[in-house]
Design goal:
Blueprint: H1 16-25, E1 32-35, E2 40-44, H2 46-52, H3 56-59, E3 62-63, H4 64-71, E4 73-76, E5 79-80, H5 87-94, E6 98-106, E7 110-122, E8 128-137
Antiparallel strand pairs: 1-2, 1-8, 2-3, 4-5, 4-6, 6-7, 7-8
Length: 143
Amino acid sequence: MVSVTDPHSAPTQQSLQLILARNLLSTLSSPAFIVDPDQIVVFYNDAAGNSLGIAYEETGKMPVTEWRARMGSIEANGNPIVEAELPTAVAQRERRPVHTTATVRIGQEDERVLEMLALPLIGPNDTYEGAVGIFWPRDAELE
């Protein structure tokens, strides 16, 4: 059970953009998640939960560092992607959509090539409200 004092589970006021994004992501069949301006994963859908092996209802909010740890190592072109270069971080910093192809290694044996897309959520007065991250397995037929 999560304690009421846990900062990652405490209810907070969310922007309309985050609420609407959550509603949209809950209907997608592709794994997707939302980060807030503080790089906290505030929601992920069932498809992302299946990829992680644990449902959002069981984890609640989590820092991007914990999300990364659950995802495994993430590399592009054979080099680890540092947190500042994750698609959602770039979307936040540059306020633009970001796409990359990455290799994700979960444990020692499970390696997947994923397409990753991040879209910034911009609110009234050009305020950054968060980002949506979507990922899917790379289609081998397109290689």
